[in-house]
Amino acid sequence: MRAMKKLVVGNWKMHGSRASNAELIKGLLAADLAATAPKADVAVCPPFVFLADVAEALKGSAIAWGSQDVSVQAQGAYTGEVSGPMVREFGAKYAIVGHSERRSYHLESDQLVADKAKAALAHGLTPIVCVGETLAEREAGQTEAVVARQMKAVIDTLGAQLVQVVVAYEPVWAIGTGKTASPEQAQAVHAFLRAQLKAALPEAAKVPLLYGGSVKPDNAAELFAQADIDGGLIGGAALKAADFAAIARAA
Ligand code: PGA
After folding, report:
1. Ligand 1 mean position to 21 CA, how many Å?
2. Does 96 fall in a domain?
3. What is the pTM of this model?
4. Is 11 in the pocket of ligand 1 (CB under 6 A)?
5. I need a surface site. Which of 43, 81, 123, 150 has the fewest CB within 10 A?
């Protein structure tokens, strides 16, 4: 049985400043999501440098936090990297891994993403593993093959730990474009991923499957109503407290 609560995660990407984050968090706390969005677990993922501020501001609230990436290494001579234990020290619960922007701009391979998921788990973080096809891949009829390949690296690498991850299906063509996958399109891929996870490990059928890609207050309810959509990974709309709160309430 999957959790009844939806998971709504804000991915702030490379946005914000200490001042604007403080405003955003003030708005989120004022929205009192524990009371007004009781069916959603909520988290935000700021850039690394803001984790300390965000942890301080959200301490004791119903909102959890996470990082947008994590190194496969725990520590060492890896200039520019940030490790799981470092992120964990700031009380983070989640680490997004394999976001399409990292796969494409930083050439992260399926195996590297899987290794990052494993590293996150090793250090007490729940990885939010992103998968998704490009427009060209969708148009070529390769959507299932692409997400299955991305997922397989994670399945093969994690073994029994597969049950501990969160997966986010984010069609690349829907990210930041205003083009949302229709609820039916998203549900079809989610059902496919659910079946793949279950076939790999029966207990993995309960892995939360988030949808991401232009989720907004006006389309969230319909997406969240789909049988295999367990929440959302929210980019642009997570930067406005009112919009993010409305999405959490749509759960
Ligand atoms: P978007 O981004 O909501 O701005 O489309 C989602 C994401 O990339 O996680």
Report:
1. 18
2. yes
3. 0.97
4. yes
5. 81
Instruction: Report d(CA 144, CA 161) in Å as an integer.
Output: 23
Q: How far is the CA of 170 from the centre of ligand 1 (A)?
A: 8
Look at residue 1 and tell me if it is in a domain. no
**Phi, psi at residue 47, to the nearest 5°?**
-60, 150
> Is 15 in the active site?
no
Q: What pLDDT is stored for residue 4 in this prediction? A: 82
Q: Using alpha carbons, list the distances in angstroms from residue 207 to 111, 113, 166, 244.
A: 20, 17, 6, 23
Does residue 113 form part of some domain?
Answer: yes
pLDDT at 214: 94
- Asked if residue 101 belongs to a domain, the reply is yes
pLDDT of residue 176: 87
42 lines ligand 1 (CB under 6 A): no
pLDDT tens profile 84-130: 999 999 999 999 999 999 999 999 999 999 999 999 999 999 999 99
Query: How much is the pLDDT for 179?
Result: 86
Q: Could you give the CA distance from residue 29 to residue 169 in angstroms, rounded to a whole number? A: 28
Q: Is the dihedral of CA 230, 199, 171, 95 positive or negative?
A: positive
Q: What ligand 1 atom has the least distance to the C-alpha of 216? A: 3
Of 123, 137, 170, 190, the catalytic one is 170
Residue 174's domain spans which residues? 6-31+40-57+65-72+80-250
d(CA 76, CA 86): 12
pLDDT score recorded for residue 1:
52
pLDDT for 145-158, tens place per residue?
Answer: 999 999 999 999 99
Domains contained in the chain, number: 1
In ligand 1, which atom is closest to the CA atom of 168?
9
| Residue count of the chain | 251
CATH at 124:
3.20.20.70
132 lines ligand 1 (CB under 6 A): no
* Residues in the chain where the model's pLDDT stays below 70: 1
Probe ligand 1: pick from 99, 100, 128, 234, max atoms within 8 Å of CB? 234
